[in-house]
Design goal:
The chain is built from twelve helices and eight strands. By secondary structure, the chain is α/β, with parallel strands linked by helices. It has a single domain, classed as Alpha-Beta Barrel (TIM Barrel). Helix 9 links the parallel strand 6 and strand 7.
């Protein structure tokens, strides 16, 4: 049982997953951000691999990715930073990026390296579940690496059940048919979607992401899932003046007190 499985076994609700782009605001901030998140009692951290064409990401994450790449972030630097962070943190680490990055590194080399430095789970939004089953399931199992797939309000029920059957970690439940980005609140249509998925009684826990930005939206998402993912709002907080410690801890305090 890895760190993610332990988390979902021991905590059934109000799980807070914070996403940030590695190498942003500065190249070497990654370890300090992870340390501060852990000290703030965040449950798990989603580390974004900067990419030049992040299809699912809104302007905030795209901009942070661009800055991180200009800062000189690379996969080798990122893997080294994750290893440093793992030495001081027991939080589950999720590595989020795009399959093209994995292909360029070499699929098995990437998964093995990620596991070796302490990554517990991958999120690759552009890797279809069918491709994973056909070509990569055995490899992921060999290296004891989890993968989380995304569902949206438009995902057919049969496909959701298929994803649930294949998944071994959690399901990333996209809150709306939109790119990432902070929003003011949870709309009626989203609540109906959350209820519909909740009534399916899926075997895997669910985390809701996209548009979760404050205490109100976090609490609303947690009513229909195991927890929620906050990304763009956190990255916006990192733009502010002050130390990494102060910015991280102030932000998390506003979400969970």
């Amino acid at each position: 049982m890895n760190r993610i499985h332990e988390l979902f076994k021991n905590k059934k609700s109000n799980i807070l997953n914070i996403y940030f782009t590695a190498g942003y605001p500065a190249l070497n901030d990654t370890v300090d951000i992870i340390r501060a998140l852990g000290e703030s009692k965040v449950d798990l951290v989603e580390i974004g691999m900067p990419y030049s064409d992040p299809l699912a990401d809104g302007p905030t994450i795209q901009a942070s990715s661009s800055v991180a790449l200009k800062n000189g972030m690379s996969l080798e630097i990122l893997f080294d930073q994750i290893a440093q962070a793992r030495a001081i943190s027991s939080m589950p680490f999720i590595l989020m990026g795009y399959f093209n990055q994995v292909m360029q590194y070499g699929e098995e080399n990437f998964v093995q390296k990620a596991k070796n430095v302490g990554v517990d789970c991958l999120i690759l939004p552009d890797l279809p579940v069918e491709e994973y089953e056909k070509h990569f399931h055995t490899m992921f199992k060999k290296h004891n690496m989890d993968i989380a797939f995304l569902i949206t309000p438009r995902t057919p029920m049969a496909r959701i059940k298929h994803i649930d059957a294949v998944s071994n970690s959690f399901i990333y439940m996209v809150s709306s048919n939109a790119i990432t980005g902070a929003k003011a609140g949870i709309e009626k249509e989203q609540k109906e979607y959350f209820k519909r998925i909740d009534e399916m009684k899926l075997k895997n826990p669910r985390l809701i992401g996209f548009g979760i930005s404050n205490k109100e939206t976090f609490s609303a998402a947690c009513e229909s899932s195991s927890g929620a993912i906050i990304g763009s709002a956190f990255i916006n907080a990192l733009k502010e003046e002050g130390s990494i410690d102060v910015k991280v801890k102030n932000f998390v305090r506003k979400i969970i007190g």
